[in-house]
From TrEMBL:
<dbReference type="InterPro" id="IPR044878">
    <property type="entry name" value="UbiA_sf"/>
</dbReference>
<feature type="transmembrane region" description="Helical">
    <location>
        <begin position="483"/>
        <end position="504"/>
    </location>
</feature>
<dbReference type="InterPro" id="IPR026046">
    <property type="entry name" value="UBIAD1"/>
</dbReference>
<dbReference type="GO" id="GO:0009234">
    <property type="term" value="P:menaquinone biosynthetic process"/>
</dbReference>
<keyword id="KW-0808">Transferase</keyword>
<keyword id="KW-0472">Membrane</keyword>
<feature type="transmembrane region" description="Helical">
    <location>
        <begin position="379"/>
        <end position="403"/>
    </location>
</feature>
<feature type="transmembrane region" description="Helical">
    <location>
        <begin position="424"/>
        <end position="446"/>
    </location>
</feature>
<feature type="transmembrane region" description="Helical">
    <location>
        <begin position="355"/>
        <end position="373"/>
    </location>
</feature>
<dbReference type="Pfam" id="PF02525">
    <property type="entry name" value="Flavodoxin_2"/>
</dbReference>
<dbReference type="GO" id="GO:0004659">
    <property type="term" value="F:prenyltransferase activity"/>
</dbReference>
<dbReference type="InterPro" id="IPR000537">
    <property type="entry name" value="UbiA_prenyltransferase"/>
</dbReference>
<dbReference type="Pfam" id="PF01040">
    <property type="entry name" value="UbiA"/>
</dbReference>
<feature type="domain" description="Flavodoxin-like fold">
    <location>
        <begin position="8"/>
        <end position="179"/>
    </location>
</feature>
<keyword id="KW-0474">Menaquinone biosynthesis</keyword>
<dbReference type="GO" id="GO:0016020">
    <property type="term" value="C:membrane"/>
</dbReference>
<keyword id="KW-1133">Transmembrane helix</keyword>
């Protein structure tokens, strides 16, 4: 049985109110909600008395007029917000804009934070939809003008406040619409009202799917894939790759990585909840800390990931010459990857997490690529090739603990920054970046592997600029802070160590 539809608030944003097509659409939508068994109320902005201008530097400090106090109460009560307004000059009328300026103030609709985008929506759990009348043809508005009003309302306004816009319905061209066409508009608006509950359920399903995508943290997968591919290309030489087999091997890695990030969210929750400086690079995916997914769902996802990884490995082993080595290596990869946060290993709590990540994302995946492509398991080549990659990973994984330092210490997660302090972490990141360049030059000189000479030259320039940035940003204390620019420097540094050798093969 589906959850009951929460109260619906229909905000009529036309300055002529009910004496307009928008007014009729708003009433038709509300009636459709009521026909479907829901509660709906129309808030006609043309009848409200309020100053539409923000007069104070702090919008929250400007006292709300009685009509806005009541409007705020209605918004707090509603679970679904419907905005009905005409498209004027590409966006909304001034009356609606002024209403939003005065009502959606810090402390009620959002708050400023040191994490994420810098803002946190406070109207979470609510959904919205827009009913917009216009004279501009749809292709012109969307393709040529870029739908500025839709984006301003749905993305720049409602999304920032934590409200998910489910549907945007256009009604037009109004100017040439005859009586029959306008009756069709009203019938359509009523239908939207009746289907409001179904739209919310679809929105919940979409939100759940997006939460799983967010939990995967796909931004970190390309480097792993390139390191794996480097191992496979080194093993194949001039023979070419068996791509179905290579991609099956990567499926084992992808599923293991997915299981790892899911368990990281579960076992790092104590730190993530405390973290006030998270970003796209640090602090986990936030899906558990924010309640988008449950602990049980993430653990079930982790089990599924491990199962897929094991199944893909079993298929690979069937056609492998060194079956035991291949199967055993994937087992090592799974244990060490999951052991980053999972008990009993909990390597990230023992100041071994950085080394664990460097090993699994360099030696482990590169050697697996080598094995999948038929390489000799006793050869030194994949280990030599992986050493500079592993060293290049250490700066970014070390610095990722800088914004989390206070939360990690409180949770007992002893990363390098948490145990030794920020200045030591910056120094370690600089030292390992230099060592990665030295290792690449040494591999080029000693082994003659293709691409490592040019890699050392390019990486040396990047490392010099990176170390310079570290020196300039060297902290004087251990207070947590966002270091997004340093994270970009460190993460892009890794790419050279897999991309340059790959292009030379």
């Amino acid at each position: 049985m589906s959850d009951p539809l929460p109260p619906v608030l229909v905000v009529l944003g036309h300055p002529r109110g009910r004496d307009s097509l928008c007014g009729a659409l708003a009433e038709a939508y509300a009636e459709g909600v009521r026909d479907g068994g829901g509660q709906a109320e129309v808030l006609d902005l043309s009848r409200l008395s309020f100053d539409a201008d923000v007069k104070l530097a702090d919008p929250a400090g400007q006292a709300l007029e009685p009509d806005l106090v009541e409007a705020r109460r209605l918004v707090e009560r509603a679970g679904h917000l419907v905005f009905v307004y005409p498209n004027w000059w590409g966006t909304m009328p001034a009356r609606l804009k002024g209403f939003l300026d005065r009502l959606l103030v810090p402390g009620f609709a959002f708050r400023r934070t040191t994490a994420g985008t810098g803002y946190e929506g406070l109207l979470k759990g609510r959904t919205a939809e827009l009913l917009v009348t216009m004279d501009t043809p749809a292709p012109v508005y969307r393709l040529l003008q870029g739908a500025p009003g839709h984006r301003a309302m749905a993305r720049s306004t409602l999304r920032l406040c934590g409200v998910d816009t489910l549907r945007i319905s256009r009604f037009g061209v109004v100017e040439t619409a005859d009586a029959d066409r306008r009756r069709h508009f009203l019938s359509r608006a009523a239908g939207l009202g009746r289907s409001c509950g179904a739209a919310r359920r679809r929105g919940e399903g979409r939100a759940k799917g997006l939460a799983w995508l967010k939990a995967l943290r796909l931004q970190f997968y390309p480097m792993t894939f390139l390191a794996y591919l480097l191992g496979a290309r080194l093993a194949a030489g001039d023979m070419g790759l068996d791509w179905p087999r290579v991609m099956l091997g990567y499926l084992a890695i992808f599923a293991a990585e997915a299981a790892t990030v899911f368990t990281n969210d579960v076992y790092d929750r104590e730190s993530d909840v405390r973290n006030r400086h998270w970003s796209p690079f640090t602090g986990g995916s936030r899906v558990l800390a924010d309640g988008a997914l449950s602990r049980g769902e993430l653990l079930a996802g982790a089990v599924a990931g491990v199962a897929v990884s094991v199944l893909a490995t079993a298929v690979l082993m069937a056609g492998a010459e060194h079956k035991a080595v291949l199967g055993g290596w994937v087992l090592v990869l799974l244990v060490l990857a999951l052991g980053y946060t999972m008990p009993p290993l909990r390597l990230s709590h023992r100041t071994l997490g950085e080394l664990d990540v460097a090993f699994t994302h360099a030696f482990a995946v590169l050697f697996l690529g080598w094995l999948v492509a038929g390489g000799d398991p006793w050869a030194a080549v994949p280990w030599v090739a992986a050493l500079p990659v592993a060293l290049s990973i250490l700066p970014s994984i070390t610095l990722s603990g800088v914004p989390d330092i206070a939360a990690d210490r409180a949770a007992g997660k002893m990363t390098i920054p948490a145990r030794f302090g920020l200045r030591a972490a910056y120094g370690f990141a600089a030292a390992t970046a230099v060592l990665a360049v030295v290792a690449a030059a040494s591999v080029a000189a000693a082994s003659g592997l293709p691409g490592y000479g040019p890699l050392a030259a390019v990486a040396a320039v990047h490392a010099a600029l990176f170390v310079r940035a570290l020196w300039r940003g060297l902290p004087a204390d251990d207070e947590p802070r966002r270091i997004d620019r340093l994270m970009v420097w460190s993460l892009t540094f890794v790419i050279w160590f897999v991309a340059v050798p790959l292009t030379a093969l």
